[in-house]
Specification:
The chain has 13 helices and 17 strands. 35% of the residues lie in helices and 22% in strands. By secondary structure, the chain is of the alpha/beta class. The protein has two domains: 189 residues, FAD/NAD(P)-binding domain (3-Layer(bba) Sandwich), CATH 3.50.50; 109 residues, D-Amino Acid Oxidase, Chain A, domain 2 (2-Layer Sandwich), CATH 3.30.9. The radius of gyration is 21 Å and the shape is globular. A hairpin with a 3-residue loop joins strand 13 and strand 14. The strands form four sheets. A seven-stranded mixed β-sheet has the order 5-4-13-14-15-12-16. It has a five-stranded parallel β-sheet with strand order 7-2-1-11-17, covered by helices on one side. Strands 8-9-10 form a three-stranded antiparallel β-sheet, with no helix packed on it. It is found in: Cytoplasm. An FAD-requiring monooxygenase active on some tetracycline antibiotic derivatives, which leads to their inactivation. Hydroxylates carbon 11a of tetracycline and some analogs. GO terms for molecular function: FAD binding; monooxygenase activity. It is an enzyme of class 1 (oxidoreductase). One of its GO terms (cellular component) is cytoplasm.
């Protein structure tokens, strides 16, 4: 069988790696021109029961632990007036239940574990039908099984369902401070080694220490879908955009607006969209989905873990049923639908908390139930 994977993200690469370990060839088609064509985002917390399970199945768990940051599990939770609600510092001997890893480093780990010919760069899928793929560069390829691992705007998903991502009512602006320990040691100490959350009434500020010394800052707003166009934030003028964002946090502790003021000229608007929780589709023997293409969730820690495990478990199902493709796909989808549905419900609950009037206290109760 010819297995074609659309998208060289974490889930698609995990699938290709598990298939490779089981002696099954697959081709990964990626629209980007090369592995370094664009940035891959910030840190991921890779959970022991999902993402790390996938890496164990892929034979990469030791190499993962060599690049993971155990101290990235640290957490500080505050209210807008500066009240510290929760501080969790990770002991040196603590279990690595959710260590942080740079997304680019994790992707490189997976890429390096594949044969050089496994990924075909510069192949943007235009159309798929009746066993044939057509790409934007005019080339084509046949497939026996097509796996959509191509994210929120999947070109493969319409072959299985009419579902489309919908706006959640939250918009996020990403900023960042490079080389924070040297340039702003005061802010580096405030943020700490891991995640720093400040939650207010419909707004949030989170900061995350990255392995390269950068602190990524995310400003969240409970707003309408068209808010980026109506907010008056001049995204093409980074200095003016930062000034406008600081105005939106008037009344918050000055330490938090100082964090915004210290950011560089990276100002990226990110609307938050999701697929319906519990999305399913009638199984087809020749097409399936994984990761965000199958179950796009709010960015609260589940998505990448689900994608990695999707890829690993689909690979194992195909290896277990090499002569019965429909059975392999059905086995994978049955488990994935149940698992992703539960993760989607939990993610939606966290998203609801983040946008609540008493978000800080509710998040504290989430972390410390009872």
């Amino acid at each position: 069988m010819t297995i074609s994977i659309i998208g060289a993200g974490l889930g698609g690469l995990a699938l290709a790696r598990v298939l490779h370990l089981n002696g099954i060839d697959a081709v990964v088609y990626e629209r980007e021109a090369s592995r370094g064509a664009r940035g891959q985002g910030g840190m991921l917390d890779v959970h022991s029961g999902t993402g790390q399970r996938a890496l164990r199945e892929a034979g990469l768990i030791d190499r993962f632990h060599a690049i993971a940051r155990r101290e990235g599990q640290d957490l500080r939770l505050l209210e807008p007036d500066g009240t510290l609600l929760l501080q969790e510092d990770t002991p040196d001997d603590a279990p690595a239940d959710r260590p942080e890893v740079d997304r680019a480093d994790l992707r490189d780990l997976l890429l390096d574990a594949l044969p050089g010919h496994a990924v075909r760069w510069g192949h943007a899928l235009e159309h798929a039908e009746d066993g044939l793929l057509r790409f934007a560069d005019g080339s084509s390829a046949s497939y026996g099984l097509l796996v959509g691992a191509d994210g929120a705007d999947s070109r493969v998903r319409p072959l299985l369902t009419d579902a489309r991502p919908a706006h959640t009512g939250q918009n996020v602006v990403e900023l960042g401070i490079p080389d924070v320990d040297r340039t702003r040691p005061d802010l580096a100490a405030m943020v700490g080694r891991g995640n720093y959350w400040v939650l207010g009434d419909g707004q949030s500020l989170s900061a995350q220490r990255n392995g390269d010394g950068r602190v990524r800052v995310y400003l969240g707003f409970r707003t309408a879908e068209d808010w980026f166009g109506t907010s008056g934030i001049p995204f093409d003028d980074p200095a003016a955009a930062r000034a406008r964002l600081i105005e939106l946090f008037a009344g918050w502790d000055p330490r938090f607006t100082a964090l915004i003021a210290a950011c560089d000229d990276t100002v990226l608007p990110r609307p938050i969209t999701t697929l319906p929780v519990g999305l399913t589709w009638p199984s087809r023997p020749d097409v399936t989905l994984l990761g965000d293409a199958a179950h796009l969730m709010p960015p609260v820690g589940q998505g990448a873990n689900m994608a990695l495990l999707d890829g690993a478990l689909l690979g194992l199902a195909l290896a277990a049923h090499p002569d019965d493709l429909p059975a392999a796909v059905k086995e994978y989808e049955r488990e994935m639908f149940e698992r992703a549905g539960a993760a989607g419900r939990q993610s939606a609950r966290v998203q609801e908390i983040l946008m609540a009037p008493d978000a800080g206290r509710r998040m504290l109760a989430f972390f410390q139930p009872g």
